[in-house]
Amino acid sequence: MERVTAASTRKMLIVDDERDIAAMLADYFSMEGYETVVANDGSAALARAESGADIVLLDVNMPGMDGFEVCRRLREHLACPIIFLTARVEDVDQLDGFAAGADDYVLKPFSLEVLGRRVAAHLARENRVREQGSSVKFFERLTIDYGMRTVEVRGDRGEAVPVELTRTEFDIIALLSKSPGRVFDRDLIYQRVWGWDATGDSSIVREHMRRVRKKLAGAGAGDDCIETVWGVGYRWVAK
Fold it and tell me: For the whole model, what pTM was predicted?
């Protein structure tokens, strides 16, 4: 794995109630050049997150406030990648995690080197989005700022209504809206949004698409911005 240089040091928040695991992760990523901050419960994680983070490693099974709740609360002020560390493998658990705002799942036990590459891949993608996304696109009711990663709907009186999106939900909108009319199948959306080395099932795209449509409609954009091409995939049809 390519080491992180001092000039590109990123801050990592590690949340795990198993102190040995948290310490192991902190030692490994510190040696890789990351600034690491450790929390051993949900309350401590929220307090540590107040100073910001570039990426979060978050255990799911913690006593008291579990990882799902911590993730939901972190998402109120953090847009960085959040990776769940978990032994839970059921599809419903993964869907719950993505619904809470997580970007990825890594199953325990895991290889530190593989986890390191996953972390580096997420941060590299963040850099690419920032470098390539400094533009704004206007549709009839929508304004999408790819640099600021925001979506606004113009109301009936001209007011701007922000659409509260998770990082992954915005990435889906960005992917589709940059190529209006193009049909993306679920596998391609999964690869582009979650990454080529992601583990999971492209069926989670359907759940995220449902949430994106619901949020757009709730903000007043209607429910016809994204069209389902049955048996194929999805395409952006908002004008």
Answer: 0.62
